[in-house]
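Researcher: Please predict.
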Amino acid sequence: MKKYHLLLLIILLGCRQELDISEFSFNFSSYVPELRIEALILPHDATAIVRIDKSFLINDTELYDCRDNDFGYISEDSCQTIDGAFWHGDENDMVADCGDWNPFIHDLGSDGIESTDNNSDGDYEDFGDIAPDEDGTENNGIPDCDEPNMDSYTEILPSIHDSTCTVSIIKTSIDGTEDLCSFFFEDAAGYFFNNMYTGDKSNPIFDNIETVTYGAYIPDSNCGEDYWTDYSAEYSFYADCSASGFGIIESEEPITISKPVVFISENDVEDIKSCDDYDCLVSSTSINFQEDSLYFGRYSLDQKIRWASILPDVTFQVVQYMFDRGNNEYKYYHSHAGFSPPEFQFNDVAISEETIVTEFYDGEGNGEWDDEEIYADENENGQWDEGEYFIDTGDTIPEVDTYYYEIFTFSDSYRNYYFHYQLYLDDPERTNLRDEESNPVMGAFGSMTSEKIHFRIIDCTIHGPSDCENTEITKSVCEWNENISLQPCVDYEGPICLPVDFSTEYCE
């Protein structure tokens, strides 16, 4: 199978003509589905989760059926009771597909790109023009293959889960005793956030960030929370997937779970450098990250959060969430891989840092039509009219001031799986799962241990002299200035409350 991937890559890189992958079906017509297993111990949440999915070809027409049927094949009345749903039947149909393909914004054709005629001359031949799809699928009023929200996560995920396996994780304590935790399949075991297509995915408002649930195996009630937080124990994975024809899959060798990072302040760095074990990190930090929040002044420069780990833990996953106050929940903001550079490694300790963007986030629209927002010109008069559908975007009034960072460490096995992304999923350097014949199986078994730290951005400029340096209000991040010039930020000179060590370099 790998040879076929390589052949296809050479073909695609060696010529400029657009090719239909179905033309190469002879290369993978005999492909047999495989399993991809991601088995994760999550000590911070005192649990574990095991995702077992079947692989499919990207041109599988049963899985990718080019139908928008997230909510099923139902009547129009039933579809209209579902928030955000659209019915795709004709006038005389009793039942039809109901899904989230929005005819007002998703009817972009099979290339998934909106056509553009910059000077409205109708020829689509000028610089920056994008011609409509030649197959006539753009603005044809019906869902088509490869348009946004077609064959979305909600439709695909239930079809790829394998729920027939017998799954367990065995813990071997330091004294040699063994305990077994059995798992069961749950349709809504986990979730992730996805930015829905609304014409602008770069800075979505909260209403356009959807929560997608997925099925997975979770521990039964007999496995206590302390089962997943034993840093001295070894854990092994076992899955019997014979019922679906995949046999038994086990971890190649036991794993140990990684310890969480320890958040530190800038003043802790010198003391932390001399630590030689994890307990020293915990006792040397001045941040009680179970209770405290950090505070940063809006418009302040070079603000960071810092954390420490014991070598060789120098690689991390860094995830930021923002608080949706209206719904009383945090939503995903962004994430990336993190590293402790060599110059931040001291004897047994690695120190890492993340620069904070000291700004609010515009997480809500104003609920009203504004110029340049996407709308459905149903009467084709060239302007938005009351009652016509429109996409509400950010209203330039930033609401979000509260966030948290979650920093993940990895077991050795899951670190290989996460960071060796250039290797195939079943490369023996990447996966520690093996079948009954000791062949590598796609995926990995390991742990991701996290620690969170909350922080809030404080706008000093809204406070007068009596509140500016009130620690209960501004948390020691603001100071009063009797006379200061804010050039070139704004044309202002005079008294104002600003972040401590404020610099006009923020505006440059």
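Model: DSSP finds seven helices and 22 strands in the chain.
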